[in-house]
Amino acid sequence: MKHRQSISSYWSILLILVLTPLLLWAAITILPTHDDWAGTTKPSFEPFFIKERFLFYGYHWRPFDTMVGYVAGLNPQVLYPTFNHCLVVIGHLVNSLLIFKLITAIGLNKNAANIATAFFFITPATMATVLAVDSQNQTYALMWDIIAFLIYIKQKKGKYILWTISIFLATWSKENGLMWAVICPILAYGFNFIEKKQLRKDLLIGICIMVVYALAIWLLPKQMIIHPEYVPDSLKTISGFIKFFFSSFITVDYIWLLHQPSRNLLLASITVILTIPFMYYIYIRQLKLIKDRKIVCTLISLLIAAAPHIFTVFSMMHTYGGLVFVALIIAISVNNYSYQCKAIIISFAFFALSAFAINIHLWHESYLSGLTGKQMAIDAIQKTGEPVDSVYVIIIEDDYPKLSSFCVIPSDAFGWGRATQYETNYDWPKVVNDTIITRNKQSLQTANQLAAFQLKDGTYNCIWIVDHKNITVIRNDIYDKEKLH
Fold it and tell me: Buried b / exposed e across 358-377, counting CB within 10 Å, b at 16+?
C-alpha cells in the first residue's frame, strides 16, 4: 500500500528517472553545429583564459561557459561534446526536480506538481536547449534562479546574502538569470509569502542587485563587441514576442509546420490536435483564474524572464528560461480541479504522446544537422590533403531554409570551417577565418576572385569555397594562381 501511495505521489519523478538515460543517449549522439563552434563552451586552449575568457568575452560575462570549455579542451576527442551534453541533461533533470519542489513549497497539491513537472521534462519546448551542445548556460541559469526563489521563501537566517549569491551564480551562467532579482519578490507576493510593503522593499533590493552587476560589467576590463542581431528594434521585438508566445504555449511540431523542405501539415495538425484537450482543460476551462493574484504574478514573472530575449534575439532555444512559469500556470490550473481528475490525466496522456513523437522528430533532425557538419569537415580535410596552418573559408550565402538548432544550413553545421579542427584533434588548421558573400549568378566568380586576392596576400595557406554542402579546396602551393583570373 505504501509503495502504491509513493508511486501515486511521485510518479513524475519516477518517470523522469526512467527517461533520463534515454534522453542522455539521444543527446550524446548530436554533434556540434553553428554557435557550438563559436561560443566559449567549445574546447578552449587559451593559456590566459582567466583574463581573456573568464572575466569577459565579447558581450558576455559567463564564467561557467568558460570553465566548461576549459575542461573540454583537456581532451576534446573524448570530452567534446559528450561532457557538454551530460551537463545539459543533468541540469534539466535537476531543474525538473526543483520545479516539483517549488510547486509543493508554494502549497499546491502533489497531483499538480506531478503533471507540471512531467510537462516541463517532456515538453518539446525544452528540446532546443536540452539537445544543444552549448546550452549549459540556460540550464544552469534556471537552476540557480529556482534555488534563489526557494531560498527567498524558505530561508530565515542569511536569506538576502544567499539569495544574492544564487542570483549572481545564475547570471554568471547566462545574463537573463539576473531577472530573478525582481522575479523572486513578485512571485513570492503572488503566493502570499510577503505583503505589499515587503514587496516594495525587496524589489528595491533586487534592482540594487541589478545595478551592482551593471556597475561590475562597466568596470571590468573588456572589449565590448555588440553583434548587430542583438540591437533592439520594434519589428524584432514584435517578432520575438510572437515566437515567445507560440513556442511557450502551443505544442506542435514546428519542423513539419514551418520548415518548408520538411513541411507536412497533416502530421503537424495531428501533433497539435493531440494536445488540444490538455490545453483546453488547463487554459480555457480555467480562464476565470486569469484575475487570480497567483496567475497575474506568474504571468508578469514570465514576461520579465523572457524580456531580454524578446527585445534582442528570440529563438526556440530561448523558451527554456520561461517554461518554469508555464509549468507553474499548469500546476495552478490542475490544483483547481478535484484531486487526480480523470479528464486531466487522460488529456495529459494524449499531450505526452504528441510530445514524445515531436521530440523524436526534433532529435532526428538535430542529429542529421550535426552529421552534415561532420561529413563536410571530413570532405574538406580529404580534399586539402596535407595539413595546412591557416585556412580562409569563403561561404556563398545559403538560401536553403533553416529552423532554430534543429534544421541547420550546411555552412553553419560546418561551423564556417571550424568543424575541421575538431576532426584533426585541433592539430590543424590552427587559424580558420571566414567571410560570407551574396548568392547570385556571379557568386562563384566572386568567390574565385576573393580567393585569388587572399592567396596573393600570402596570409593563408589554403582557401575553402563552400557552396551549400560542396567544398572547393584551393591550396597556394599547388594551384596555378593565373587560373583564378
Answer: bbebbbebbbebbebbbebb
pTM of the model: 0.93
DSSP states of 173-185:
T-GGGGGHHHHHH
Quote the DSSP letter at residue 475.
Answer: E
Q: Can you give the pLDDT at residue 485?
A: 47
Cell of 445: 566568380
Q: Which three cell numbers stand for residue 235?
A: 519589428
Residue with cell 567534446: 80
- Phi and psi dihedrals of 58, rounded to 5? 65, -115
DSSP secondary structure letter of residue 403: B
DSSP states of 411-434 as a string?
HHHTGGGTHHHHHTTT-S-SEEEE
Whole-angstrom distance, CA of residue 223 vs CA of residue 202: 34
Report in angstroms the alpha-carbon separations of 443 from 344, 439, 454. Answer: 57, 5, 16
pLDDT of residue 270: 96
- Assigned C-alpha cell, 392: 580562409
User: Rounded to an integer, what is the distance from CA 101 to the centroid of its chain?
Assistant: 23
CA 160 to chain centroid: 29
Neighbours of 11 (CB within 10 A): 16
Judge whether 251 and 358 are in contact, CB under 8 Å. Answer: yes
Which residue do the cell numbers 545595478 mark? 211
| Cα–Cα nearest to 63, from 132, 131, 136, 126 | 136
Of 202, 404, 236, the closest CA to residue 318 belongs to: 404
Indicate the DSSP class of residue 259.
Answer: -
- Give average pLDDT by consecutive 10-residue segment, the chain, 485 residues: 69 95 96 88 73 64 86 91 96 97 94 96 95 94 97 92 96 93 97 94 96 86 62 75 89 92 94 96 90 94 92 84 96 87 92 96 96 96 92 91 90 93 92 91 89 85 92 75 48
Angle at 137 between CA 193 and CA 79, to 5 degrees: 140
Beta bridge partners of 413: none
Alpha carbon distance 79, 85 (integer Å):
10
What is the C-alpha to C-alpha distance for residues 411 and 430, in angstroms, rounded to an integer? 19
User: What is the helix (H) or strand (E) element at residue 435, kind and residue range?
Assistant: strand 431-437
Length of the chain: 485
Give the whole-angstrom CA distance, residue 315 versus residue 244.
Answer: 8
Under DSSP, is residue 169 helix (H, G, I), strand (E, B) or coil?
helix
With contact defined as beta carbons under 8 Å apart, do 203 and 182 qualify?
yes
Question: Dihedral angle at the C-alpha atoms of 179, 183, 185, 188, nearest 10 degrees?
Answer: -150
- The DSSP 8-state label assigned to residue 480 in this structure reads -
Separation between Cα atoms, residue 447 and residue 441, nearest integer Å: 12
Question: All 3 cell numbers of residue 332?
Answer: 495552478
**Burial (CB count within 10 angstroms: exposed 0-12, middle 13-18, buried 19+), residue 465:** buried
